[in-house]
């Protein structure tokens, strides 16, 4: 009965809404692996016009939703903030189109 009570108490998944900047950041991380904020910003800026403020907002929302995580590099004197996909991010990535055109919402 213990597993049944845990199953019944499970909370529904929280929705994750991804705008275009967030989708491009996920695709960049999937294609190239862990990247710094500047690398994510440059990739998004090349694809479509964007500002640093929009990209900061996108990265912060992804990090808050546990779609990406920050990785610290211990071997450098000034640690670089690199971002990588989490397990949840890899699951969401399966449904992101290769050329996104609009915002999407996921329940994963």
Description:
With 108 residues, the protein is an alpha+beta fold. It has one domain (15-97): Winged helix-like DNA-binding domain superfamily/Winged helix DNA-binding domain (Arc Repressor Mutant, subunit A, Orthogonal Bundle), CATH 1.10.10.10. Helix content is 47%, strand content 17%. The protein is built from 5 helices and 5 strands. The protein has helices at 2-8, 20-32, 37-47, 52-64, 87-93, and strands at residues 16-18, 35-36, 68-72, 81-85, 104-106. Strands 2-4-3 form a 3-stranded antiparallel β-sheet. Helix 2 (20-32) packs across helix 3 and helix 3 (37-47) crosses helix 4 (52-64). It starts with a helix and ends with a strand. The relative contact order is 0.23. The mean pLDDT is 87.
The number of helical runs is 5
Residue-averaged pLDDT, rounded?
A: 87
List the helices and strands in order. HEHEHHEEHE
Global shape: globular
CATH architectural group: Orthogonal Bundle
CATH class: Mainly Alpha
- SSE-based structural type: alpha+beta
- Fourth-level CATH superfamily: Winged helix-like DNA-binding domain superfamily/Winged helix DNA-binding domain
Number of domains: 1
Instruction: Give the N-to-C terminal Cα separation.
Output: 26 Å
Q: What proportion strand?
A: 15-25%
Which range best describes the helical content: under 10%, 10-25%, 25-40%, 40-55%, 55-70% or over 70%?
40-55%
Contiguous runs where pLDDT drops below 50 for at least 5 residues? none
- Please report the total strand number as a whole number: 5
Largest sheet: 3 strands, antiparallel
Give the C-alpha Rg.
16 Å
- The spatial strand order of the largest sheet comes to 2-4-3
